[in-house]
What does this fold into?
Amino acid sequence: MARVLLVDDSDITRAVVARILQRAGHETTLASDGAEGALLAMQRRPDIVVSDLEMPVLDGCQLARLLKSDPATHGLPVVILTSHQEARSRYWSLTTGVDAYVIKDSDPEELLATVDRLLNGSDPVALEPAADRPEDPLGVLVRVVKALDASLLEATLSNTMLRDAGGADSLEGAVRAVVSTLGQVVDAEAIAVAFSDKGEVACFAALPQPLAPPAGWLLAAALADRLGPHRDEDVTLTLFGSEDTDGSVLSLNALVTYPLPSREATAVLGVVPRNPRDYSRITAPLLDKVVPHLALALDNARLADRLREMSSRDGLTRLLNHRAIYERLAEEADRAARYGEMLAIVLADIDRFKRVNDSHGHSVGDTVLRVVAGALRANLRACDALGRYGGEEFLAILPSTDLAGAVRVADRMRRLLARTRLPGGGAVGRIRVTASFGVACLAELPEDGRMEQLVDLADRRLYAAKHRGRNRVVADDE
It folds into this structure.
């Protein structure tokens, strides 16, 4: 026998349904509206609630949300028994916490079977102490207001994170926005997010107040360990905030982590609360609710970042592709012209690359392209840009660099490549890699010169280098 709380504003319906439940051996308690039903549920804690959908004060969905959100009744099964057969009503009821939706005109056995199924699948929950139970409808109203306020906070926080992360132009920007929002509601010494993709771990850590170094790296290492096997050198850290030798020491004993479901990667949120006891009591229940939304926001940002990278990166060398490097050149040329700054470019072409493909196959040719890309990139500054211009050609953009400086950069590239031998034995190990270089500077063009003219100038000099014997740098028009 089970204790059933039956809530319905119709005297006739209450009597009929109560008789059906009692004949099946269940003890019934009756309530005539949602507020009275909530009060009885919290005071007497039945085994299950059967409620009408449309009622005064609190309707069935509102009653279910209140019971599911209140610690006294959160595990209590709720059945909506209604004459409404609209799909919208069924969807909203089941979405807002109702466990089953039964039509009044159906066979009474369906209601009994539903009640038995839910009773068999629910865990008994102990009653709260009497002092914590509402004594009158006003006490129920207070709990309704608290539940609404908590739901509003969860919704606002979740929507803010989804909005800010969706508006960011990179994964780093999305994490920064999300962590900044969390920092306003979570009293923490540090908040961090880490992603692991194919053994490479990227950690983003926020320090609301300066901590003694190496707080950021300690937190990154702890989260990387949570994500699985990795090499220490494959962990990167982006720090939001600063470290200070006069700051307090970060204690990882209080670190709380939350897995963040992610497609094609694993991710984790880490929080180091200032007061672990208050965090467990006040903040942890909130984070339990919003973490799924946070995970979705960051996963979407990560995939958008990946799509942007795929659209702008060459799949083989991971350099900027032709479109992206040309757009970067346009930006740098515009900036240099606006502020009267220097700008130079280097156009490189691998010597006799067709012979490599014909003699050793395209897989070896791909290896040569990757090796050359790495060697060229190794000679550039962080502010420089390098892209695969086409085939075996590469374009380097050197802001704030004159012609002589660009020649020095190109010659360092040339000498490094000339010393390069591909790894491996046999014929592959004997491949010698060289390239020819054409260098041009924006200052060489007339005042109304265009970006295309700069590229054409470097291209002419590149082919001059080829005609002069290859493996050389040309920066003149002789």
Residues 127-131 have pLDDT under 50 and may be disordered. Residues 3-135 form a domain with the Rossmann fold fold (CATH 3.40.50.2300).
